Amino acid sequence: MKTYLALVRHGVTDWNYDGRAQGQVDVPLNAEGERQAEAVAARMATERWDAVYSSDLARARATAEAICRRTGHTLVTDRRLRERDMGPAEGLTAVEREVLWPGVALSDIPGVESDAELGRRAEAILTEIARRHPGQRVIVVSHGALLNRFLQQTVKAKPVNFRNTGISPVVWDG
User: Fold this and answer.
1) Which one from 65, 83, 90, 113 is the annotated catalytic residue?
2) In this predicted structure, what is the pLDDT of residue 63?
3) pTM over 0.90
4) Looking at the chain, which terminus has fewer C-beta neighbours within 10 angstroms, N or C?
5) 4-16 residue pLDDT tens
6) What is the structure's pLDDT at 88?
7) Can you give the C-alpha Rg of the chain in angstroms?
8) 83 flagged as catalytic
9) Euclidean distance between CA atoms 9 and 12, whole angstroms
10) How far apart are CA 9 and CA 6, in angstroms?
11) CA angle (56, 43, 149) in 5-degree steps
């Protein structure tokens, strides 16, 4: 039985504007992010949904809470939906990372969750959610790297420029 997943990236934060690696730092939405959350909530409220899940980090949770206010659902949070663990790179810009780790890709910095680890975590939690809701329609609010890695690894999509409050539909068929 097919399950429809609407994968939603959280609203924008000041760290998004600054180009800082947020990782699992609990950065809140800024004013624009709050407006984005309300806009995506209004959009999602035009359709029928059976459940809403979110990362437990404030930026995703606030986006999902806006959706729940419009759809009437109770939010289910799960820390496995968190952004990539950026380890020592959290809070740093690309320029700052390049100074500390010249020529090293973000996912290859020691202490940063690898693409493979992130992909396994993303696939495990999103598959679990889909299996929990056979034949239903589920909104999942999470983070750009986790959602992108899932789409690349599991759905074989090309890298996605996941804009804040962007929605990617996925039909899970087992």
Assistant:
1) 83
2) 98
3) yes
4) C
5) 999 999 999 999 9
6) 98
7) 16
8) yes
9) 9
10) 10
11) 45
